[in-house]
Design a protein that fits this description.
Layout (H helix, E strand, L loop, with lengths): L11 H11 L4 H21 L6 H6 L1
Helix pairs in contact: 1-2
């Protein structure tokens, strides 16, 4: 895996929560996975934007 180090500032509460769900020594892997998931979600959202009103709005 080709990765580059970066500094991310998180609250102590966020760090504690990450360690609680990810386990000890898994913080970086958890953050990488969370970032990848959020990027996938946002990219999919931008490809398929939600239309408010739908077809009913167009008929008025």
């Amino acid at each position: 895996m080709n990765v580059k180090p970066t500094v991310v500032r998180l609250t102590q509460e966020a760090l504690d929560r990450i360690e609680k769900v990810a386990g000890p020594n898994q913080r970086a892997a958890f953050i990488r996975e969370a970032v990848d998931n959020e990027l996938d979600r946002r990219e999919a959202e931008s490809e398929n934007p939600v239309q408010i009103g739908g077809d009913d709005e167009k008929q008025r």
